[in-house]
Amino acid sequence: MFENAFNNIDRFMRNDEGLASELDYAEQTSWLLFLKYLNDLEAERQDAAELEGRDYRPILDERFRWDVWAAPKINGRLDDNAVTGSDLIDFVNRDLFPYLTKFRQTATSPDSIEYKIGEIFSEIINKFRSGYALRDVLEVVDSLRFNTQSAKHELSDLYESRIKRMGNAGRNGGEYYTPRPLIRAMIKVVDPKVGETIYDGAAGSAGFLCEAWEYLSHDNLSGADYDTLQRRTFYGQEKKSLAYVLGVMNMILHGIEAPNIRHTNTLTENVMDIQQRDRHDIVLANPPFGGGERKEVQQNFPIKSGETAYLFLQHFIRKLKAGGRGAVVIKNTFLSNTDGASVALRKELLESCDLHTVLDCPGGTFQGAGVKTVVLFFEKGAKTRSVWYYQLDPGRSLGKTNPLNDVDLADFVALQPERTNSARSWSVDVANLDMSTWDLSVKNPNAPEEAPLRSPEEIIDAMLARDAETAEILEDIRGML
Predict the structure, then answer these.
(1) Which of 86, 111, 229, 306 qualifies as a FRET site for 368, CA 20 to 30 Å off?
(2) What is the pTM (predicted TM-score) of this model?
(3) Are 396 and 363 contacting, i.e. CB atoms less than 8 angstroms apart?
């Protein structure tokens, strides 16, 4: 049912000239789903208050509630006189969005659902131009229900697939979507426990936080543990407006009522100002590559760099508590670049953390991304003595129709706890590294040696010999004619 609903939403959106891409579809679906979710949440809170004999004051004023403007009903059926056409667009643009935006100023806490309302509607706009197309979509969204875990699970799967399509449609597939099998493998290695805090300072669509929630939540959780997961476990920050909206909605669909994601540029925080109360037990992240921050932002870091990922890695190291665990995706060139920032950052990582594992990912792991990546697994508080490498080789070319899967990563996950050496894995003693470069390049000692490259002279001689042989054969054929 939900899959058909999402397909119908896409069909109606394609009929609106204001919506031109998968990014638009994901953004516009998100704010509509959010308001429908909020309506269902209010109904649940109202019922709970009545059972407990207390008053409940709804978050939204009456005229802005879903069942008043979006899906008014008479005897359980949609009111034929529900506002539509240009009147509906005018109401959304002139009344609804400005009203919802004000919640950012009146909310008591950035972590409250009220603040999320204000933040979301301050950062996006309604892109529907046709009130008739919007009315069609509203009717479909109204048919969705968020009141059971199975419904939320199915909706979250469909929403994830939409984020994946959106990521594939962009120039950089890794910007909005990190392959879920890779995230799950990272989480299994880090092995978070209930009571530990998990942080992603480049949250994107919150894939790491959602998968960590799935890893930790199960049916026999105690009430106290469930409350801990809901309120005091998952923390994120995201700079981009669309990604922030996607992340909040993704976490809500996974079952987290008021996600602790803040809309801010993480890199504007001076890492030297990070206090113990700001630190976390676990960091899971895939920070953006390249980009380049302004020089005033680089001043927030002891190692200055125009590479955004290098600034994020410094931030993550300092956001970890002593003994905290990190798993961070980064370009594989970080392991070998010889510029001053790369060398200094490798040195800091090795001397302030135990970089115990490097997972080398094959090309095509991230759809649309033209760079190869590695995953750094480290623990803060002890120097690195040995690094265990695993070179992932799924035995096929990865692509949109043949993506990375959980089976591809099963061998890595099985070998990592003991850091077992194999044809694909090996260990490097840090004492044997060149301390002038701290080069951590992936060099599999178990791989068969490649044949030595021929010199240019040898290649030219071989070509001339082949040409002479070809001419001789052609002369023989001429003689037989």
Answers:
(1) 306
(2) 0.85
(3) no
Model pLDDT for residues 211-258, shown as the tens digit of each residue: 999 999 988 899 999 999 999 999 999 998 888 988 988 898 888 877
Total domains present in the chain? 3
Q: What is the DSSP letter of 92?
A: I
Cα radius of gyration (the chain): 27
- Cα–Cα distance between 479 and 481 in angstroms, integer? 6
445 within some domain: no
Report residue 109 as tokens.
């806490």
How buried is 439 (Cβ within 10 angstroms: 0-12 exposed, 13-18 middle, 19+ buried)? middle
* Strand positions, DSSP E, 392-446: 425-429
User: Does 399 lie in the same domain as 251?
Assistant: yes
> Of 4-8, 202-206, 316-320, 450-454, where does the model show the most confidence?
316-320
Single-letter residue type at 62: E
In a domain, 161, yes or no: no
Residue-wise pLDDT tens digits, 10-29 = 999 999 999 988 888 888 99
- Whether residue 452 is predicted with pLDDT greater than 80 in this model: the reply is no
Nearest to 474 by CA among 89, 96, 466: 466
Q: CB within 8 A of 477, min separation 6: which ones?
A: none
